[in-house]
Every structure is written in C-alpha cells, then in structure tokens.
Design brief:
Keywords: Membrane, Transmembrane, Transmembrane helix. By secondary structure, the chain is mainly α. It has 17 helices and no strands.
Length: 414
C-alpha cells in the first residue's frame, strides 16, 4: 500500500488548507468510484476534519450510497469498515470505530432519506445480511435513520421491534444509540404511552456509554415528540447540558434554541440560533451546509416572529391592566358618589319633613311670640345647614370630573 499512488497523494495533501484537502479527497474518491475500486487504505482515526484517508473514504461511500441507497450498500460499507476502519477490539480504537460507524450509518441515511426501501425489499435483502451481527446492526441503523429523518414514527417502531434485520443485530440492540432510536419512535408515536417513551429516553440519555449521536437522537426525539407537559423545559435543560459538553456542535445549539423557543425565552433562543449559524461549517459536501443553513434561518425567523408577537401581547396586556385600574377607580368613585347621594336625599327629606311639620305651627298655630320666633329660627338654621350640605355634596360629586387636556406646544421646526 505504501507504493500506491492514491495513498501517496493523500499523504502529500496539506491538511492545513481545508479547501485543498476537501478538493483532493473528493477527486480521489471519484476516481476510486469510477474504476470500481474500494478505498485500498486503512482508516485509523475519527477525525472528519483533518484525516485525509477518513475524508476520502467518507466521500467514496457517500457516492456509493447516492447511487444505490439500499441496505445492501450499507452492508458493503459495514464490511469495508470492519476490515479497514479503526480496530474495534483495541481500547484506543473502539471509540473511534463507534464514532465512524454511527456517523456514517445515520449520515448516509439522512442524505438518502428520499429513497426508503419497502418492508418487502428489506426482507428480501435479509438473507444476505443476517450472517454478521455487526453488519446487520449497521444496515439496521441505516434504514432506521431514513425512517427517523422522515418522521415515520410508527414504521420505525415496527421495524426496530420486529424486523428480521433489526433482530439480527443481536447484542447491538442494547446499545444506547439503538435505545435512542426506539425512544425517538415512541416519543412521536400516538400509539405508545408517554411513560414508555420517557423510560426509553432516560435509559439512552443516562447511559455511561452514550455517544454524541445518542445525545443528538435523544434531543431530536424531544423536539419532535407529541406535545406533552414541560416538553420545552426538558428539551431546554438537556440541550443546555449537551451544548456545554460539546460547545462546537451546531446541532446542539439548534436544539437549545428550540427548547428556549418552546419556553418563550425568545432573547436567549435568538442568541442560541445565532450561535448555531456561526458554528455551521461553511465547507464540505457532507455537512449539507445549504440545507442546514436554510433550516436554521427558518427557525430564526420563527423566533423573531414569536418575540415580536410576545412584545405586542405584553403591550396589549399593559394597556388592559391600566384600563382595568381606571375602571376600578371609577367604580370606587361611583360607589362613593352613590353614598353621598343617599346621604343628601336623606338630609333633604328630613329637612322637608321638619319644615312641613313646623310651618303650620309657625304661621297658623296659637303659639306665643317667643316660641314662634324659636321655630322660625330653627327653620332658618335647617335651611342654612341644608344649603351648606347641598354645596358640599355638589363639590363631592363634581371633584372627580376629568380635567381637559392641556394643549401641547407644537414641536420646533427643524
């Protein structure tokens, strides 16, 4: 392999220049595909940003999947990865092998999600795939990834639970990623209970062996789940945990923005989606930059619109509160005015009764002059007191009359 011109070209490429690295790896991958040759070199890392051999192999298998998006291609990819990928039996290579396997299976599923195979086609291919648990597991992740990308929750649940291909994965069915796929199906399905979905989600999330793809699937499950109480808070908190652990991951920033949006924390959500856009890699065909950017910008518009509506609603509520306070004040004034009116009516009736009862004695009775003068003096006092009360009552009734607004001076001319 040392004398292979392909290997030599990949060794010579400058890894510091990302554009040149991307171009050379793409050219080599297309050359291999045109000649019908699988990559003849080994991959010893999981560095998708700087390892030219891994990037080239990634480009090659991307071309294969785009041409033939089937579980048979997934089986061929898994076989190559077993023979040429990081050594899964070595402690240093196990994590790298898992990273490449999960990224390829779910990533290729996403870019070929528009070509789902039917259950009959999957069953027909099973005869050639069930001999190895590792290969069946990769093919299962690939097809399940398509169903997940298309939000086919019930179909995903049925495939993972009863398909011969998924059953052939054997012990791999207990991995956190497989559990996360089951949780995704349960969270979106309306046929399964929320308790079952939450139990699967917690098992995957709190697993000591969880990977970055497991975390991504769990957050995706929460974002796409059938609405449930405190969904936004749970997504926000777990996405914040993930974004803290993997601060350069733009997808986790997106999930955090989604959770904050659901919690109506619009300023923080806008900050998170702006971070996701800033972290989005600007080069590389595998990152689907344009599609992701359009998705993130659409989410940003939704957040901005929600923030605008929230500001308008807050202004409306403030006006309603002020109007309600004014109405309560007017109501209290009317109640007070009613009390004053009742008092004035009572006093008026008492004064009329007194005057009527004494007028006959004053002017038609046989009272002595002194008593008659006392009655006249009493009548005058009552009339004077009644007049004072009338003036006071009028003042009390009219003192809350709104004052005319003062005319404002026109603004100075520029």
């Amino acid at each position: 392999m040392e004398g292979n011109p392909i290997v030599a070209r990949l060794r010579r490429v400058a890894t510091e220049d990302s554009r040149e690295l991307d171009r050379v790896c793409e050219e080599v991958a297309r050359s291999l595909r045109e000649t019908g040759t699988e990559p003849p070199f080994r991959v010893t890392s999981a560095d998708f940003a700087a390892d030219p051999f891994l990037i080239c192999a990634d480009r090659y298998w991307r071309l294969r999947f785009l041409e033939h998006p089937t579980v048979r291609t997934a089986a061929a990819c898994a076989s190559w990865l077993q023979a040429h990928g990081p050594a899964a039996h070595e402690p240093s290579g196990a994590a790298q092998h898992t990273e490449v396997l999960e990224k390829w299976a779910l990533g290729y599923a996403f870019i070929t999600r528009d070509s789902e195979e039917t259950p009959a086609e999957i069953a027909e291919a099973c005869g050639d795939l069930v001999g190895s648990g590792d290969i069946a597991y990769f093919a299962t992740l690939y097809h399940a990834g398509k169903l997940r990308a298309n939000f086919r929750f019930d179909e995903l649940h049925g495939f993972l639970e009863s398909s011969l291909l998924a059953l052939a994965a054997g012990p791999h069915r207990g991995t956190p990623l497989f559990t996360a796929l089951r949780a995704f199906a349960a969270c979106g399905s309306r046929r399964l209970t929320a308790e079952h979905a939450a139990d699967l989600l917690d098992h995957a999330w709190y697993s000591p062996q969880r990977t970055v793809h497991t975390v991504d699937l769990c957050l995706n499950a929460l974002a796409a789940a059938t609405p449930f109480p405190r969904q936004g808070e749970l997504l926000r908190d777990r996405a914040h945990e993930a974004a803290t652990q993997w601060p350069e991951n733009h997808i986790f920033a997106l999930r955090l923005a989604t959770g904050l949006h659901l919690c109506r924390e619009y300023d923080e959500a806008l900050e998170a989606i702006d971070l996701a856009l800033a972290l989005l890699p600007a080069i590389g065909t595998r990152g689907s930059h344009r599609q992701l950017q359009e998705q993130y910008l659409a989410k940003r518009e939704l957040i901005l619109e929600a923030r605008r509506r929230a500001a308008e609603n807050a202004a409306h509520e403030e006006r309603w509160r002020r109007q309600e306070a004014t109405y309560r004040k007017v109501e209290a004034q009317l109640n007070s005015t009613t009390g004053h009116l009742l008092t004035m009516v009572t006093v008026f009736l008492a004064a009329i009764a007194f005057i009527l009862s004494t007028v006959q004695l004053t002017y038609g009775g046989d009272l002595p002059l002194g008593d008659r003068m006392l009655l006249i003096l009493g009548q005058g006092t009552v009339m004077l007191a009644f007049s004072g009360l009338l003036v006071l009552g009028t003042h009390l009734l009219l003192r809350y009359r709104p004052r005319p607004e003062q005319p404002q001076d026109p603004p100075p001319a520029d």
